[in-house]
Write a structure and sequence with these properties.
about 35% helix, about 250 residues, 5-stranded parallel β-sheet, ATP binding, alpha/beta
Length: about 250
């Protein structure tokens, strides 16, 4: 079964699909150009998806599925790509959704990003938010920006993610990548600890609550460049979202 999933993931990488779904009572299905395409004729049975989980998840991750019904983590597929994995229970069975994360960083031009976006990478301090719905390219955009800073500036970059998706090697900068659960308990705690580690740049994987947003703003106000994401559409909605998170007295 381990070989079977390698064949499936190879197909996803070769076709440059965005996702693959391993769902009981459905053949393995990839998303390509926003269309769902079945990779086999035979539908998966519970033993299939259970075996797939055992092939890609650690014993700790499998225990988390057993305990709380699901888990999310990053998975390195040989030297070809990484996947963001979400394992979850549905009708008592194991299902798996995997999103492709290429090893190669895309350039600003390849992503259609203007030179104004690149200029943000040289700001000494401030808060930069990349917003949009799920699947709109927020993570890819931030990975490109962090890679550019890493290649062009003398910085200590701290990324805080859940899970780590793109791996950054040390180039001109030092890059510290911390994963929730494995390295730190929460985004706000990681930010507070990070302030004592001589940082220049922070990447916060998701500005999901008051404590995280407040800690990120504090980091920006104290002379650091902070990047983060929000699931909003448009600048006005982003400001409203941040304001709405805070109590009226703040």
């Amino acid at each position: 079964m381990a070989e079977n999933i390698k064949v499936l993931l190879n197909t996803v990488v070769e076709k440059n699909a965005s996702d693959i779904h391993l769902h009981v009572d459905k053949p393995p299905t990839m998303r390509l150009n926003n269309k769902l395409i079945e990779l086999e004729e035979k539908s998966l049975i519970p033993d299939d998806t259970l075996a797939y989980m055992k092939a890609i998840a650690s014993s700790e991750q499998q225990a988390e599925v057993e305990k709380v019904g699901g888990t999310d983590f990053g998975y390195a597929f040989e030297d070809k790509a990484r996947f963001r994995v979400s394992i979850y229970r549905q009708k008592g069975n194991i299902n798996i959704a995997m999103r492709l994360i290429p090893y190669k960083f895309l350039g600003f031009e390849e992503l259609g990003l203007s030179h104004h976006i690149k200029e943000l990478c040289y700001r000494p301090r401030g808060l930069v938010l990349v917003t949009g719905p799920t699947g709109s390219g927020k993570t890819t955009t931030l990975a490109t920006m962090i890679d550019h800073i890493n290649s062009s500036r003398d910085c200590h970059i701290i990324t805080i993610e859940d899970p780590i998706e793109y791996y950054h090697t040390h180039k001109k900068s030092i890059v510290t990548q911390r994963e929730l659960g494995a390295d730190v308990p929460s985004f706000p705690e990681a930010l507070r600890r990070g302030l004592r580690q001589d940082p220049d740049v922070f990447l916060v994987g998701e500005m999901r609550d008051l404590d995280t947003i407040s800690a990120a703003i504090t980091a920006a106000e104290t002379g650091h460049l902070v990047f983060g994401t929000l699931h909003t559409t448009g600048a006005a909605r982003t400001v409203d979202r941040i304001v709405d998170v805070f109590p009226i007295d703040q």
